[in-house]
């Protein structure tokens, strides 16, 4: 071997050793992050307070303001974190006290159904609306049946979520148009109210709420979620002939209300202008406690800051925890945040959202502007081997609703992907409570996010 | 291009097309298996009956015999399945009606602790045993403290499961020696009873049972599981000085009882002598309903046969569903089954056990005799790309306790690996009930097993 080649060989070995050493260090950090989350985690305690003291947090409600102050206070207790509120206004909808849907039998008897008014739904007169039920499976069905058959009726949108989709979010995506646009479409064709089969693959008596959107401000009919068992009951009853129901509902829009987004950040030492965002949305529906949707995501994002601080990790880049307002009913928090960020000329190198429940993490989904996606994804993929032993995998796809408006900044948008099988058991229902979140699953999600933040902060992705 | 090379090229294309075509067909079959499990699955209904009508199925109990007859009957209803019972005898332990552990305060008051006698535990005298508590963290501690300090005491084994293990089964493996051998060891050093911290990472009031083994038939002291909250309570109390407890327990061994293993099989068309086994264990502890442990595994194994039959799949090899007896307390079912199989000169090409709960499947773990492992694993790995989109991954490691005795047949032993985070919330407790199993998670596990069985049956692994 010549001196020159010996030297090259020496350099190669040196380079290799440095690489191996860095990998060991990184693996050690990922292990420490997980140890910290699983041994000293605060996410579960935070979630308990958020659910039990500030549950049912529609943006603009008193509960929401309580939650915003509470989480801001907790973020502020983490050393090095600057916590503040970002003003935001949200259209506030309030559920009525009178909410009841009943089948009316010919003998004068009634059977109360398990229902829940959809978010934004208008009220009926106090005496209610009575009408004949007509079942449809899609918005198209309404158009095909036309005004003659839909007019004066109560439309039951009854296309189930497809149970054969392995990802339940795909099944949700394939059915939720009925809830979002169904009542509006039915109203356009002269219906007097709309019942929407709950967005779940479960057969049960639990009605699900969620946003409905009126296309035309002049034609608004009540939109009501109905449990899958009761949707099937009506469908079966219709096979026997005419079915009449009465609907009493009292929801109303209350105008704009203050609903600030909560922010806590650690300023980066070397590249403070490169922001790595972690977040979830603080608002929830009014029923249940907003545990999986999305208290879990909020406390996981908070926990990322706590873990990094407790491990005395000093980030090079700015790590910003953002608990968005009003994801459920207009996305005012996400839109306001992006607009202000753009106005300040900020750059979000990466944004990670957790808004798919506090279940066992199975990986991350990545999206970005096509002009930069390949480079980003290639760089991120280098860290995968160090995350696989934690059961984490990478995929390309969507990220999160609240961080979506940041896409124009051409950073990398990332969604935490927990196991999705149980999500729609609880989503938008009275059963979305603290008790249905498992401590370890919640903590592992936080650790997964903290690990990815660590890699992005240490190595960048550009 | 020469004629010869053109022909080679043509052959290559033909070969490639056939391969691609076979891959498409296989992917289609895997999709159909999942569709069938998720749309028409029977596992959940079977589990409901097993839990609600035959819950708490200690091998040898009436509940166990009921479960054996029920599952044999259901297997027999699947077209083409030959269902039968394999006789087996198991040592039957019965929990006493009197079971109570209380802290005795100096002022005469008592505080009842959340406890549950361990399986095989002997009874105390009816008036109970009273003694001073001494806390240890390991079997070694007992030896170090010696007879002088242990003699006459009630030993509290209080080493927690390590929460930082990502797989909870690893944490269990690191702590369960206290339950299995702790009471025996403590007795050897003169203790009068042993309390064992429950095998869970949760902090709660739920005591866990499970098997304890006496090394010496002459020295047997009662072994009692205690909830993690109460173990911590005792530990804290001991910091303030002497702590006395009274133990009343009434468990006893009832001798050998009939506890047959349940078998249902479809005979293979081409290689009937190559058996592919799928199974779980039918017995459970007496508390709870044996839902995750291991009703889930049993109904998943039954579901594999049902799915294949309903898709009109005609297996080349013999597919045998085995619901083993007495896994929890001696493994009589697994040992008897292997002995009979060996005596008949049978060969199990593969055996897949589901005994880690009815949670979202995350893959399979493979083990085999070292002489054949590499070939088998290499062949099996070819199918992985078609399973990854279902969130399934492969690893090497253990398989299942019941199929372990088959290892000498030099087939491939396989364990279904569901997500493990929630398993020890329920394991061996009164909360291991039907309600804590999610329908989709259960069904996906069955579909994963059926998919792997399909590949092994179609292609073999040798």
Structural features, described:
Two copies of one chain form a homodimer. In chain A, α4 links the parallel β6 and β7 (154-157). In chain A, strands 1-12-14-13-15-18-16-17 form an eight-stranded mixed beta sheet, with helices on both faces. Chain A has helices at residues 3-40, 43-53, 62-76, 139-150, 168-173, 177-188, 228-239, 291-310, 332-343, 370-381, 384-388, 423-426, 439-459; strands spanning 82-86, 89-94, 99-104, 110-112, 115-117, 129-136, 154-157, 193-197, 223-226, 244-249, 252-258, 261-266, 271-281, 317-324, 347-353, 361-368, 393-396, 412-418. With 462 residues, the first copy, chain A, is an alpha/beta fold. Chain A contains 13 helices and 18 strands. Chain A has two domains: 38-92 and 256-459, Aminopeptidase; 96-250, Glucose Oxidase, domain 1 (3-Layer(bba) Sandwich), CATH 3.50.30.30. Chains A and B meet through α1 and α13 of A and α1 and α13 of B.
